[in-house]
Amino acid sequence: MKKVRSRSGKAGLPPGSIVRVGEANATPAAMKVFNYGPDHHTERDIRDLAELPMPAQDGSITWLDIDGLDDDTMIRTVGERYGLHPLLLEDVLNFDHRPKVEEFQDTLFVVARMLSLDEETGGIEMEQVSFVLSRGMLISFQERPGDILEPIRERIRRNLGRVRKHGADYLLYALLDVIVDNYFLIVENLGERIQELERKVTVRPGNEDLLTIQEIRSLLITVTRYVTPTRELAGRLNTLQSELIDKGTRRYINDLQDHTVYIADSINTFRDMLTNLENTYHAGVNMRMGQVMKLLTVISTIFIPLTFIVGVYGMNFDHMPELHWRFGYYMVMGLMLTISLVMLLWFRKKRWL
Fold first, then answer.
1. For the chain, is the Cβ count within 10 Å smaller at the N or the C terminus?
2. pTM of the predicted model, to two decimals?
């Protein structure tokens, strides 16, 4: 179950106050800056806030990658260094935002949600990442170190793909694309779990299967909660009249929006599958219960005449001729066996067994 993050710490404070909404992370902040162009690339760690770079004037792209947001002084210094709006900084520290895009003067502010699959528990880990796009520069803010964005860093280092041939807006697209691609991995994993569960429920439903159905449904709801606004985010970036988004990049952003639509459709399909699977589970349980009740009914029906015979000969009358007959016991046992076999054959003929 998703934990509700308290916002009470912001009550009464003026807008733009640097207040963290969410659990604190004890990991120290780490900052790395990439500077690249079509024919060059540099990368260095920043250990002193005085080393924060300004956008390059030679046409190259600067990416300031910040991991860990527990240092309020660092957040304020970054905001002052690049002239970021106080409301933007406030949203950076609000770790429970839905994905969105906003314009702040000459910058674009984008909030996205990174989802990753916990292979041990099968659950979904969530982390907010914020992007600030300006002319020739991109700043990314993450809650904690460790992410799914490493493939983009490798593309920059090894000059793979189109990242180093385009501007900062394409870098923003590439990072969002990796985030959405990871949605695919999660949805595909859930789809495989649903198919495996479907085979199990069809053959022999168990008590734990209903809990698994509810668990997968909850995970699908979690993914949907961020896929839908991410689709809106991509659509907003695609139609936004901003000079920071190049016309050529809009084509890729449109493709990003198509991916989110596909994921949303897949989730809807999986929801229908889970509903049908739940109905199949209940139908299977009811069928098994009916079979058990039918078997018990057959057994009870067979024992009704047998109980009658035993009851008759169990009466304490002195004048019952069969009681003193030498073969009386064998006759009664044979009669009871004959009645049982005849009833079983009759039930079989009527297809009740």
1. N
2. 0.78
